[in-house]
Amino acid sequence: MGAGPAGYFAAQALQNLQNDERKFAIDMIERLPTPWGLVRSGVAPDHPKIKTVSKVFEKIATADGFQLFCNVELGKDISVEDLTKNYDAVVIATGTDKGRKLGIPGEDLRGSLSAAEFVPWYNAHPDYVNVDVPLDTDTAVVIGAGNVAMDVARMLALEPRELDCTDTANHALEELHKSAIRTVHIFARRGPEHVAFTSPELRELPKLEHTDVEIGEPDIENALKRVSELGEIPKDVKSNLDAMMAIAKSDKRGKERKLIFHFLASPIEIKGKDRVEEVVFAINEVRNGRVEKTDGTHSVKTGLVISAIGYQAEPITGIPFKSGIVEHENGQVTGTNIFVVGWAKRGPSGVIGTNKSDAAAVMELLTSKLQNPKDNFDLAKYLASKGVVHISQGNWEKLNSAEVSAGESYGKPRVKFTDRKEMLGFAG
Ligand code: NAP
């Protein structure tokens, strides 16, 4: 269940576990008309290299025994019970697509949204085309210090012309071209030594052609002092601090667009009448290695605040969930033939490649639990009998080619379609 990176790597792991005596039939089911999950609707459009992993997915999908069933929704078109009854094993790879809430006053005002809405909006996810993203404000605030927050901040702070040759959704590109935003503030609640950004992503920032990226040099000096007092600085922390110091020291060329980093500030309130007008932060301090709130506050006038503070899973009927992920033991839902991989298993952390080793371990466990195989289940026939139109690998290849062709004359890798009817048409 779920045609994202975790699902494909699970399928690949099963393919690698085949031998002369044991072959697997793998049906991959996906709710959307298109596969690839976060590679299509999560990865930032200005990071096309990361998306080349889709070539691996297509190799997995065209191997013997693999069938793709997109446009099929679990719980609506087929139930968990139908799956567990008819298949030897069911692998949940449905990710965590709901944004965590800040839980502060004003969070529901217009102009306050989650990265879990903004990212799929600019990535042409069919369910997020109509997200209300008011860009008619000169200042935006992004909350969070992870790579998603960085993607969001960069997308807002970029000169939109830099996105013209990418696969950014047409509706988002149009809005970004009209955007009044010129300053983007990104807020971390802890210090530079604690951020979840990774250094390759930080090192890219000074290369932005039309945006000055600002970090206060004293912020990094103080962080370096604090971590050196604790002993040897961990390699990833050192690498991040070096990358942030390079940003702090980089030439600021008085560009019209700015991306400014702030540390040790926790959001406590979003103010506004009918929409966001201001965000108030508590100022924090690091005392004896612990981050603590002070009595001080600081506020920023803004019309748009996007929180990128992690994700959780939307529960699925028939599957036990706990703390925003599937409840499991080493990847197996206890006492069932249901297994879980990816963010639905581990929670929302790790890069695309992390799913490879994780899925391989769970598929080893899955194969060790297999007993006499059940008769092959004809999912295509089952869906047809219920009037469900699914998109097969062949249909997806047609839709994929149509999107790629649509992008060619604009110099884009593709134009992503968002209308389900239109997508079914192109898929044949
Ligand atoms: P993340 O890396 O876990 O970062 C979440 C951030 O939100 C942390 O800085 C956290 O701060 C902060 N936060 C949590 N609750 C908060 C609150 N109430 N108020 C203020 N801040 C709060 O999550 P992510 O950015 O969603 O990324 C998920 C995973 O995808 C990560 O492993 C990431 O590296 C990966 N990813 C990779 C790429 C890439 O490779 N280019 C791009 C996007 C995502 P604390 O640390 O203080 O809790």
What's this, in brief?
By secondary structure, the protein is of the alpha/beta class. The chain is 33% helix and 19% strand.
Can you characterise this structure?
With 428 residues, this protein is an alpha/beta fold. Helix content is 33%, strand content 19%. The protein contains 15 helices and 17 strands. It has helices spanning 5-16, 38-41, 54-61, 80-86, 115-122, 147-157, 170-178, 199-204, 217-229, 235-249, 343-346, 354-369, 379-385, 393-408, 420-426; strands at residues 26-30, 66-70, 90-92, 98-99, 112-114, 139-143, 183-187, 211-214, 257-262, 265-271, 278-287, 290-301, 304-307, 311-312, 321-322, 325-326, 338-340. The strands form six sheets. It has a six-stranded parallel sheet with strand order 5-13-6-7-9-8. Strands 10-11-12 form a three-stranded antiparallel sheet, with no helix packed on it. Strand 15 and strand 16 (325-326) form a beta hairpin. Helix 9 runs antiparallel to helix 10 (235-249). The protein starts with a helix and ends with a helix.
Please tell me how large the radius of gyration is. Answer: 23 Å
Q: Which class of secondary structure composition applies to the elements?
A: alpha/beta
What is the count of β-strands? 17
Report the major sheet: 6 strands, parallel
Distance between the termini: 23 Å
Low-confidence segments, ≥5 residues, pLDDT <50?
Answer: none
Mean pLDDT across residues: 97
Number of helices: 15
Strand order, largest beta sheet: 5-13-6-7-9-8
